[in-house]
Specification:
Helices cover 37% and strands 18% of the residues. Strand 2, helix 3 and strand 3 form a beta-alpha-beta unit. It folds into two domains: 131 residues, D-Maltodextrin-Binding Protein, domain 2 (3-Layer(aba) Sandwich); 158 residues, 3-Layer(aba) Sandwich (D-Maltodextrin-Binding Protein, domain 2), CATH 3.40.190.10. The chain is of the alpha/beta class and 366 residues long. Strands 1, 2, 3, 4, 5, 6, 7, 8, 9, 10, 11 and 12 form a twelve-stranded mixed beta sheet that branches. The N terminus is likely disordered. Helix 6 packs across helix 7. The radius of gyration is 22 Å and the shape is globular. The longest helix is centred in the middle third of the chain and has 14 residues.
Length: 366
């Protein structure tokens, strides 16, 4: 029996505007006002681009080079954010160097000495690693958003027209269905996929045996495990597999680029939350802190929405387009990341270590 689901087959989120004719008199008035107050107008526009929710503004940075290190999927969003930030007073003169890759790999790279001023990961344990390494302050998550900058959900991505009729989790374990998902021992996105699947088939963790068996059956149908979510999307786009487990924002991104895909938001899935922080050994802390403040502004959150992410602040245009699953779990429902990491993703012995070894896949981080 198939679970009910919500399907999105559009080409992403679009907004349109309407402009009406202006009278000559109005045009003259506007022209005079523009000429007389252009400096004031420019200042107002810049200030509004750095206004924080609840009042206040983005602090002033000091320009210079800022190293941004993040997981793979928000690359386009951060490209747009960097451009928008440098157009504000807080980002004036800043040169943002960007590095993207698998979340776990990026976290380990920063731990190992890769220069970083601002870090953004797929999941909290990759930030916790840097706290333990004294690379990020222990209070990184002490803002009103708990240190999270975006949200998403796990979805099922299929070929255009859904030729294999994939409607829910049960369909992924059928004979002949080829599944693509990243390796959970390198990719944060893969871990979200695992927990969404486990939660859906274990009755929210109440039937652990059923959840384990489902993961075993699911991964027998997995044909490729890339090291990052973005690489898995590229593999799927290249023609491999019938269904891709992915972030909702990745599916929206693919559609916006003209990929011939559909996606289903399962009725039972998990809320993805993505952490960000300024590093404690930043070489440019003022600009990094200004950028960290900027990503919480309505303007920045709108850019995230335009790139398929669910915002963490309210009132962002376009946010109402995201469907609400009937059963949306959080990682806290399974004990939080410390417990989940040990139980599911410890390479020395865990549920996913057993699953991967049973199909001959390495569980060692690259």
């Amino acid at each position: 029996m198939h679970e009910p689901s919500t399907r999105r087959t559009d080409r992403g989120i679009r907004r349109t505007g309407r402009r009406g004719p202006l009278s000559v008199a109005v045009l003259v008035v506007l022209a005079v006002a523009l000429i007389a107050g252009c400096s004031k107008s420019d200042s107002t526009a810049s200030t509004s681009a750095g206004t924080l929710p609840g009042g206040g503004s983005v602090p002033a940075g000091k320009g210079g080079t800022m190293n941004l290190v993040a997981y793979s999927t928000p690359q386009e969003a951060y490209g747009a954010l960097a451009k928008a930030f440098t157009a504000t007073p807080g980002g004036k003169g800043a040169d943002i160097k960007q590095s993207f890759g698998a979340s776990g790999d990026q976290s380990r790279a920063v731990e190992g000495g890769q220069p970083a001023d601002y870090v953004g990961f797929s999941l909290e344990p990759d930030m916790t690693r840097l706290v333990k390494a004294n690379k990020v302050a222990a209070d990184w998550n002490q803002n009103q958003y708990n240190g999270m900058v975006t949200k998403s959900v796990v979805v099922l991505v299929t070929r255009k027209g859904n030729p294999k009729n994939i409607k829910g989790w049960d369909d992924l374990t059928k004979p002949g269905v080829e599944v693509v998902t990243p390796n959970p021992f390198t990719s944060g996105g893969a871990r979200w996929n695992v927990m969404a699947a486990y939660g859906a088939k274990s009755n929210g963790g109440k039937d652990e045996a059923a959840g384990k068996q489902y993961l075993m059956d699911l991964f027998k149908n997995v044909v490729v495990q890339d090291d990052s979510a973005r690489k898995s999307l590229q593999t799927f786009s290249g023609g491999k597999g019938d269904v891709l487990l992915a972030y909702e924002n990745e599916a929206i991104f693919a559609q916006s680029k003209g990929e011939e895909i559909d996606y289903t938001v399962p009725d039972q899935t998990i809320l993805i939350e993505n952490p960000v922080a300024v590093t404690s050994d930043s070489k440019n802390p003022d600009t990094a802190k200004a950028f960290l403040a900027f990503v919480y502004t309505p303007e920045a959150q709108k850019i995230f929405v335009e790139n398929g992410y669910r915002p963490v602040i309210t009132g962002v245009p376009g946010a109402d387009k995201f469907p609400t699953p009937a059963q949306l779990a959080t990682i806290k429902d399974y004990g939080g990341w410390t417990e989940v990491t040990k139980k599911f993703f410890d390479p020395k012995g865990s549920i996913m270590a057993d699953v991967e070894r049973s199909i001959g896949v390495s569980v060692e981080s690259k």
